[in-house]
Write a structure and sequence with these properties.
Number of strands: 12
Strand content: 35-45%
Number of domains: 2
Order of helices and strands: HEEEEEEEEEHHEHEHE
Structural class: alpha+beta
Number of helices: 5
Largest sheet: 8 strands, antiparallel, barrel
Distance between the termini: 97 Å
Radius of gyration: 54 Å
CATH architecture of the largest domain: Beta Barrel
Shape: rod-shaped
CATH class of the largest domain: Mainly Beta
């Protein structure tokens, strides 16, 4: 068992050391392998160390993974001094393996292997046969010497389930196997593509500064839509918010205009004054007058109250400058302004 451990440890050390080696373009051609087998002695069969051969056909699925279909034949000589229960011994079988390559350096490609298959056991010169399943695990390496030839070696441990205990008086068998041989890549070698020449650096062209676009012109605020305007001298007595009787025709006309325009959703009733008097007083007076007009439009003109909004502006929005008697009279007014229309 000491020899087995040393062989397995040596191959494993080489495999993991190769992971640090530089790799080239991986060669993924199928391979045909042939190897000589050496099987270490065991106490179950009571035989000498055995020897044989292995043939394998492998395919690479990727730079890392591969599969291999193999067959083998091994022979053992009986060693009576070890108390073996059988005579000369031979075995043959087939297996399907999965290989994991730790590196793809063609000079040294280490791998691990895991596989399973069936084995035929036979005591030579007898009719005692048994076919049993087995599994094995191991490590190995490949080294490509030319484009079409390389050497290969691996170490495996095979476990055989001898369920019927014939021709071995035991229900399990373990074999330590070291193999060394050759492999042949099948097909044409892959030619590495020539490196693309590096283009000369382009002469930098000075960037032309992009002119800053002028800021967009502000959107003009739309003028309010005044649909009706009434002079306050027609509506009210001086300094009063009570409507005059002669204001009725003008207000009924305004109500009719509101009711006939079905797109109107909101109308402002705004009161305005001139600059005579204090600002707070004028603001309150204009608001009372706007409220009086709105009440008339609702009660007498049948305008829905929800359409009207009342606001007193006082002297805030003169229509013309307050620099003459005539202009001051024009600024004293009530305006009906559209706040919202339906689309």
């Amino acid at each position: 068992m000491t020899i087995q451990k040393r062989c397995l440890s040596a191959v494993a050390l080489l495999s993991f050391t190769a992971m640090a080696h530089a790799t080239t373009e991986p060669d993924l051609r199928p391979t045909l392998s042939g190897m000589y087998n050496h099987i270490f002695e065991d106490s179950i069969r009571g035989s000498d160390e055995g020897s044989g051969a292995t043939l394998g056909l492998g395919w690479n699925l990727s730079p890392v993974w591969g599969v291999e279909l193999g067959g083998f034949f091994n022979e053992f000589d009986n060693d009576p001094g070890k108390g073996g229960a059988v005579g000369d011994w031979r075995e043959w079988g087939g297996n399907l393996d999965v290989l994991y390559h730790l590196s793809r350096n063609p000079r040294f490609t280490p791998y691990t292997v895991l596989g399973a298959g069936a084995i035929r056991l036979n005591e030579r010169n007898s009719n005692t046969f048994t076919t049993e399943p087995f599994a094995h695990v191991g490590v190995g390496f490949k080294s490509l010497l030319t484009s079409y030839f390389g050497i290969r070696g691996d170490a495996r441990y095979r476990y055989v389930d001898v369920s019927n205990e014939q021709p071995i008086n035991d229900d399990q068998l373990g074999e330590a196997i070291v193999s060394l041989g050759f492999f042949v890549p099948l097909g044409s070698a892959q030619v590495a593509a020539a490196p693309t020449p590096t283009p000369p650096p382009a002469t930098p062209v000075p960037a032309t500064p992009t002119p800053t676009p002028p800021p967009p012109k502000p959107t003009p605020t739309p003028e309010p839509e005044v649909i009706y305007e009434i002079d306050q001298t027609v509506l009210f007595e001086f300094d009063s918010a009570k409507l005059r009787p002669q204001a009725s025709p003008s207000l009924m006309e305004a109500a009719k205009k509101i009711n006939q325009d079905t797109t109107l959703q909101r109308v402002e009733v705004g009161g305005h004054t001139c600059d005579l008097g204090s600002a707070p007083y004028n603001k309150k007076l204009s608001e009372r007058r706007a409220s009086a007009v709105a009440d008339f439009l609702v009660k007498q003109g049948n305008v829905p109250p929800g359409k009207l909004t009342v606001r007193g502006y006082g002297m805030e929005k003169p229509k013309v400058p307050n620099n003459s008697k005539e202009n001051r009279e024009r600024n004293r007014r009530v305006e009906l302004t559209v706040l919202k229309r339906s689309q």
